[in-house]
Specification:
Blueprint (H helix, E strand, L loop, with lengths): L2 E11 L2 E6 L4 E6 L1 H5 L9 E6 L5 E6 L5 E2 L4 E2 L3 E7 L7 H13 L3 E7 L7 H9 L3 E4 L9 H11 L3 E5 L6 H8 L10 E2 L4 E2 L6 E7 L2 E5 L24 H7 L16 H7 L5 H14 L12
Parallel strand pairs: 3-5, 8-9, 8-11, 9-10, 11-15
Antiparallel strand pairs: 1-2, 1-4, 1-14, 2-3, 4-5, 6-7, 12-13, 14-15
Helix pairs in contact: 2-8
Length: about 300
């Protein structure tokens, strides 16, 4: 007779899911075919119900209601997203970063930006830009860890009692940062390809690690692109609210249907001209607006 259990998915790879039960032990499970027919995929971070016969593989029968979910990284029920960027090698792609921050904002996910490799270049311009945009940032260097004990303590305190996922472009040192902050993990790390200035993908599956009671941190595969329109992750109607540093200046706009992209007399454009809005942030907003403006509801593809 099958026994029902509850737990959290801590690892997802190739249709096989590792579920941690309430007693701390883990079981390997697959998803029932009903999920596939409903185009629903269990994700790391999902709270699930599964059934298991003694000596047999378990099957997930229910996915409990999610508070949020993301695609690339494919995760669910995220409390905190720790986004690792490098000052250089590779240079930060601010558009990709801003896309991810907008998606996090839409899903009600707190963000901590960890600026790594500060030993290689001055991070102040990048730090100031995102501090001014209202984001919490931490300077870091995984190779100079002895100089960053306060930052290590801060990151550990921020993830305490939460489900947190670390993500970032390939080569930024995400796994190295995690190894320094959580030395018990011993994650595989990779090197930057000097030819193409991209990192080798050392994280191939999405995994949650239990640091202490009620504290999980996830390592996710690096991303090089984020198709927000194709995956229905952002929409034109809520885009402005996903850029709160821009939205606060839109309240005074004299145009009722202003796009805040380039209109003369727009309060956002005035704030941009006065240096109150970081130019790269507005550039990202405009690029996303142009990406989303012609998308119809029936054009989006629900991939979960």
């Amino acid at each position: 007779m099958a026994i029902k259990n509850c737990g959290i998915i801590v690892k997802s790879t190739g249709g096989l899911y590792t579920v941690e039960k309430q007693d701390g032990t883990c079981e390997e499970c697959r998803a029932r075919g009903a999920f596939r027919h409903s185009r629903i995929t269990p994700l790391a971070g999902d709270r699930v119900v599964f059934e298991k016969d003694d000596g047999r593989e378990g099957f997930i029968t229910e996915i409990q209601e999610r508070k949020n979910s993301l695609i690339r990284p494919s995760v669910a029920n995220v409390d905190l997203l720790c986004v690792v960027v490098a000052v250089k090698d590779p240079d930060p792609d601010l558009f990709i970063l801003d896309k991810l921050l907008a998606v996090a904002k839409k899903n009600g996910i707190d963000v901590l930006i960890i600026v790594n490799k500060v030993d290689t270049a001055n991070p102040k311009e990048l730090i100031n830009a995102y501090n001014e945009a209202g984001f919490e940032t931490v300077e870091f260097s995984a190779v100079k860890k002895e100089d960053f004990s306060k930052e290590i303590k801060k990151i550990r305190e921020r993830v305490g009692g939460k489900v947190s996922f670390f993500t970032g472009a390939s080569g930024v040192g995400k796994s190295s940062v995690m190894n320094v902050v959580f030395p018990e993990l011993c994650l595989e790390t990779g090197e930057i390809s000097k030819k193409i200035q991209r990192g080798k993908h050392t994280t191939r599956v999405t995994t949650l690690f239990k640091i202490e009671k009620n504290t999980y941190v996830g390592d996710t595969p690096g991303f090089s692109m984020l198709d927000v329109s194709g995956f229905n992750m952002l929409d034109i109607d809520t885009l402005l609210s996903c850029f709160p540093d821009i939205a606060k200046y839109a309240c005074d706009c004299k145009y009722k249907k202003c796009t805040h992209v380039c209109e003369d007399g727009c309060s956002v454009m005035a704030a941009l001209k006065d240096g109150k809005i970081v130019k790269s942030r507005h550039d990202s907003y405009v690029a996303l607006f142009n990406e989303l403006k012609d998308i119809k509801p029936w054009d989006t593809r629900d991939r979960l």
